[in-house]
């Protein structure tokens, strides 16, 4: 089965989105990954609704939005309205996670929970039957271009074992430092969807890199 590749638009050229979307739309990726940062939950600010709207108009791919924000419930309906299909919120930012997941589903989107590198994935055990995907952060969220944290591989394996028991349809997505050199090993560990920012947009031939990663 082909790997789901989700190029992170954080690494795209915001001065020429048309050009990057031409590449994306004709590539082997299935998703695009939209990193939404609020400067509160993470020490960086990225982009908001006007940019998501523009990307929605340009893309032919499935939109996967990763909310690195506090109080995500306030904005869930707006992401649905813009055509986002996969929406993840952070475990660390949601005191009423079950309610938040219900809100995402009520808006017609697939619900995911993202976990920071320090968060034990087993904390998701009770919410797992409700989830469509789990996003394992393999860097500390906030910036593209960081190095992959090796312990993330064990987290994937641990999570995969529980998923098989309680919710086999739940996907595992990984985000941060994913590249040509580690993707095959991550797929082997149980990852289904791979976010890649700098590995795609920093490569000489982004389309060829996506094709390589999709088939790794
Ligand atoms: C980090 C973001 C990532 C980031 C990945 O906070 O969630 O999606 O853009 O970038 P790379 O692939 O360069 O590590
Ligand atoms: Zn992300």
E-strand count:
8
* CATH level-two architecture: Alpha-Beta Barrel
CATH superfamily: Aldolase class I
Bound compounds, each kind once, are: D-xylitol-5-phosphate, zinc ion
Bin the strand percentage.
Answer: 15-25%
**pLDDT averaged residue by residue:** 98
SSE pattern: EHEHEHEHEEHEHEHH
Strand order of the largest sheet: 1-8-7-6-5-4-3-2
Shape: globular
Described by strand count, sense and barrel closure, the largest sheet is:
8 strands, parallel
The third-level CATH topology is TIM Barrel
Assign the structural class, choosing from mainly alpha, mainly beta, alpha/beta, alpha+beta, or little secondary structure. Answer: alpha/beta
CATH class: Alpha Beta
Stretches where pLDDT falls below 50 for ≥5 residues?
none
Radius of gyration: 16 Å
Secondary structure tally, helices: 8
Helix amount: 25-40%
Q: How many structural domains can be distinguished in the coordinates?
A: 1
What does this structure look like?
The chain is an alpha/beta fold. It has one domain: TIM Barrel (Alpha-Beta Barrel). The protein is 32% helix and 20% strand. It contains eight helices and eight strands; from the N terminus they run βαβαβαβαββαβαβαα. The chain has helices spanning 17-25, 49-58, 76-81, 97-106, 152-166, 183-189, 198-201, 206-214, and strands at residues 4-7, 31-37, 62-68, 86-90, 110-115, 133-137, 171-175, 193-196. Strands 1-8-7-6-5-4-3-2 form an eight-stranded parallel β-sheet. The longest helix is centred in the last third of the chain and has 15 residues, at 152-166. It is globular, with a radius of gyration of 16 Å. The N and C termini lie close together (10 Å). The structure holds D-xylitol-5-phosphate and zinc ion.
């Amino acid at each position: 089965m082909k790997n789901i590749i989700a190029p992170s638009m954080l690494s795209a050229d915001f001065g020429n989105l048309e050009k990057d979307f031409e590449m994306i739309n004709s590539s082997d990726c299935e998703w695009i990954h939209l990193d939404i940062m609020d400067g509160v939950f993470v020490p960086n600010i990225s982009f908001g609704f006007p940019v998501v709207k523009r990307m929605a108009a340009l893309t032919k791919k499935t939109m996967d939005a990763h909310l690195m924000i506090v109080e995500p419930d306030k904005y869930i309906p707006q992401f649905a309205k813009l055509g986002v299909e996969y929406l993840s919120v952070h475990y660390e930012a949601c005191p009423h996670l079950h309610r938040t997941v219900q809100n995402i589903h009520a808006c017609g989107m697939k619900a995911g929970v993202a976990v920071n590198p320090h968060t034990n994935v087993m904390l998701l055990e009770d919410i797992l039957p409700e989830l469509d995907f789990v996003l394992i952060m393999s860097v500390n969220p906030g910036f593209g271009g960081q190095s992959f944290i090796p312990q993330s591989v064990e987290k994937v394996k641990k999570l995969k074992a529980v998923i098989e028991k309680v919710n086999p349809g739940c996907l595992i997505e990984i985000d941060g430092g994913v590249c040509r050199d580690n993707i095959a090993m991550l797929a082997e560990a149980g990852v289904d969807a791979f976010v890649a920012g700098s590995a795609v947009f920093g490569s000489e031939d982004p389309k060829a890199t996506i094709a390589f990663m999709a088939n790794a």
